[in-house]
């Protein structure tokens, strides 16, 4: 069972200390990976003693769980507003741009790589991340597509499949080179070009 991160302390000073520790841990995990990171290295990076570190977090797993919680807030679909009355072309372009800028954030790749490396050993943590980020984005797009099918704008038999197809098309030439550190995070302009191509392909297949 993956431990839930401890609740935020009520005291502002304690809350700031907790954030300081989480940021230190994020830095160490990014540089060393989960397995190589030690609580001593994390305490050093956070500028606290090991005793203080253990006051807030029982072990590395609890710390990584707190980092995942922060990532889920930063990558949450709730930040994207979709207007169900907006035309598919505009919505797909906006959705794809937001999705790829979230997925390929310069500082976000290390968390995804770490998550992928430990998901086999800690499937609950991997499932939590998947359901809160990729699946949540896919579900929001699929719901929009169902509205457009009902309105007669699109002809789609399986909206979940179509949403996944669009999201993967938006990743083309961008995500894999980024996540494997072959290229830096793509620019907004490059993302816009790829998303525009994905949008054209999608509408060619599904526009009524």
What does this structure look like?
The protein is mainly alpha-helical. It folds into two domains: 61 residues, Homeodomain-like (Arc Repressor Mutant, subunit A), CATH 1.10.10.60; 129 residues, Orthogonal Bundle (Tetracycline Repressor, domain 2), CATH 1.10.357. 70% of the residues lie in helices and 0% in strands. The protein contains eleven helices and no strands. Helix 1 packs across helix 2, helix 7 packs parallel to helix 8 and helix 9 runs antiparallel to helix 11.
List keywords for this structure.
single chain; 208 residues; Arc Repressor Mutant, subunit A; Tetracycline Repressor, domain 2; 70% helix; 0% strand; elongated; DNA-binding; DNA-binding transcription factor activity; transcription regulation
């Amino acid at each position: 069972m993956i431990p839930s991160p401890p609740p935020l302390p009520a005291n502002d000073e304690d809350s700031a200390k907790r954030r300081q520790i989480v940021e230190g841990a994020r830095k160490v995990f990014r540089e060393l990976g989960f397995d190589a990171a030690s609580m001593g290295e994390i305490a050093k990076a956070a500028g606290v003693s090991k005793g203080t570190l253990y006051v807030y977090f029982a072990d590395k797993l609890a710390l990584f769980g707190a980092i995942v919680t922060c990532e889920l807030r930063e990558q949450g679909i709730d930040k994207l507003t979709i207007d169900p009355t907006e035309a598919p072309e505009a919505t797909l372009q906006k959705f794809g741009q937001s999705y790829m800028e979230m997925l390929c954030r310069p500082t976000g790749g290390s968390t995804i790589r770490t998550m992928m490396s430990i998901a086999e050993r800690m499937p609950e943590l991997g499932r939590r991340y998947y359901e809160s980020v990729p699946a949540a984005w896919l579900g929001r797009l699929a719901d929009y597509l169902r509205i457009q099918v009902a309105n007669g704008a699109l002809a789609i038999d399986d909206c979940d499949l179509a949403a996944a197809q669009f999201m993967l098309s938006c990743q083309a030439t961008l995500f894999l080179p980024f996540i494997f550190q072959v290229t830096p995070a793509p620019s907004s302009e490059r993302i816009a070009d790829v998303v525009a191509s994905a949008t054209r392909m999608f509408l060619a297949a599904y526009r009524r």
